[in-house]
């Protein structure tokens, strides 16, 4: 049965938690309300790196000295015996006290306790696990000093009522972060690529193009824009191009159409024709579908052909074929479970692949992996194998 705190204060906690992805100050107020509700001196949210060597703090209530907080983030995160001893219990949604994770004997003789917790007069802890492997470990933590009693059933119940909302809010935060990161970097990333990129809506109108694409249409040598529509100068090439764009834009409609394709674009001034590839945006694994853009047209000079960004990214970080196949599907927007189903492997196997991808690339979560793949620049020329 819900107690007075859950009835009166939990709705305020929820409001701040769900508003925090837009207003980060909401995290601090939510942590304060939780601290008051469970009698904690400090409450915060840590995100550990995939290798567990360090951590970042995204929310905090309480006043640990900044130098001590930094020491935890850079040194004691991987020496936190509550986490190392109880690693098998760290599952998303779990509510765990320090006593459940680590014996008192192990805690009191540890470097973590004697050099970090003890100077802060911290003895007891409780945490709500927000995310766990293969994603980076993320959890809300709360602590009390040695003169107080351990956290008990009341605090466990209140954190248990809060945890589902923390999990949802963090997922919303990750989605917004991914969307905002893509919006901030999309133009920059596209402009760095050596091929012309045209993003079209389902009516075939250009909604975005990169610097190389703008140069192509400004030359009016093989392509031009006619009231926002991409048009090939040569008539037969244009018929083929429009058919491919129309088919790619109809992807998912159920109509029996060719979903894009490739064609040559003859130049008015002669010389080697340009090469165009048309596809639904999600199919490329590089340009996810959006409400505005549903078709991508890639145009390049045959003599300047280069690997698509994900190919060079995969080679640069020495991803195995299995790891690369999984990562490429995640780049299209599939969830881990959907990617596993498409590849015909178990979700547990996919988690293992993803953990290795994180370790090799330094990514902390799937949205970070996507951003790294989009912005990756190879150290040197890559050759096709």
Notes on the structure:
The protein has 385 residues and is α+β, with helices and mostly antiparallel strands. The chain folds into three domains: 4-180, Beta-Lactamase (2-Layer Sandwich); 195-305, Beta-Lactamase; 310-375, Winged helix-like DNA-binding domain superfamily/Winged helix DNA-binding domain (Arc Repressor Mutant, subunit A, Orthogonal Bundle). The protein contains 16 helices and twelve strands. A five-stranded antiparallel sheet has the order 2-1-5-4-3. A hairpin with an 8-residue loop joins strand 10 (261-265) and strand 11. Helix 2 runs parallel beside helix 9. The chain is elongated and about 85 Å long.
List descriptors.
Beta-Lactamase; 5-stranded antiparallel β-sheet; alpha+beta; disordered C terminus; Arc Repressor Mutant, subunit A
Do you know the CATH architecture of the largest domain?
2-Layer Sandwich
Q: What is the third-level CATH name, the topology of the largest domain? A: Beta-Lactamase
CATH top level class name of the largest domain: Alpha Beta
Total domain count: 3
Gross geometry: elongated
Summed over residues and divided by their number, the pLDDT gives a mean of 80
Strand count: 12
Determine the number of helices (DSSP H or I, runs of at least 4 residues).
Answer: 16
Give the low-pLDDT segments: 253-258, 303-308, 380-385
Could you give the order of the helices and strands? HHHEEHHEHHHEEHEEHEEHEEEHHHHH
Q: How far from one another are the termini?
A: 63 Å
Strand content: 15-25%
């Amino acid at each position: 049965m819900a107690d007075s705190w859950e009835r009166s204060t939990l709705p305020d906690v929820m409001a701040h938690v769900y508003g925090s992805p837009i207003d980060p100050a909401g995290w601090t107020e939510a942590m304060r309300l939780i601290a008051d509700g469970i009698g904690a001196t400090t409450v915060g949210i840590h995100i550990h790196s995939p290798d567990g060597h360090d951590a970042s703090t995204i929310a905090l209530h309480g006043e640990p000295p900044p130098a001590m907080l930094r020491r935890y983030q850079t040194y004691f995160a991987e020496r936190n015996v509550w986490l190392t001893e109880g690693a098998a219990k760290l599952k998303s949604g779990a509510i765990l006290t320090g006593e459940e994770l680590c014996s008192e004997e192990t805690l009191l003789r540890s470097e973590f306790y004697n050099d970090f917790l003890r100077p802060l007069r911290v003895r007891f802890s409780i945490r709500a696990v927000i995310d766990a492997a293969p994603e980076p470990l993320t959890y809300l933590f709360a602590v009390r000093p040695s003169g107080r009693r351990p956290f008990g059933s009341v605090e466990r119940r209140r954190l248990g009522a809060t945890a589902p909302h923390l999990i949802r809010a963090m997922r919303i935060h990750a989605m917004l972060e991914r969307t905002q990161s893509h919006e901030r970097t999309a133009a920059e990333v596209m402009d760095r690529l050596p091929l012309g990129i045209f993003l079209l809506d389902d009516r075939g109108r250009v909604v975005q193009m990169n610097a190389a694409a703008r140069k192509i249409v400004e030359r009016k040598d093989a392509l031009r824009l006619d009231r926002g529509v991409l048009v090939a100068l040569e008539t037969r090439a244009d018929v083929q191009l429009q058919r491919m764009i129309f088919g790619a834009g109809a992807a998912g409609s159920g109509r029996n159409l060719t979903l894009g394709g490739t064609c040559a674009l003859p130049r008015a001034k002669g010389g080697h024709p340009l090469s165009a590839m048309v596809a639904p945006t999600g199919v490329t694994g590089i340009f996810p579908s959006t409400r505005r853009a549903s078709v991508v047209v890639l145009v390049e000079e045959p003599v300047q052909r280069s690997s698509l960004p994900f190919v060079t990214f995969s080679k640069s970080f020495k991803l195995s074929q299995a790891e690369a196949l999984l990562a490429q599907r995640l780049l299209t927007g599939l969830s881990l479970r959907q990617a596993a189903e498409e590849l015909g492997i178990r979700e547990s196997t996919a988690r293992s692949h993803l953990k290795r991808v994180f370790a090799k690339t330094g990514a902390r979560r799937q949205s970070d992996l996507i951003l790294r793949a989009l912005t990756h620049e190879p150290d040197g020329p890559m050759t096709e194998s």
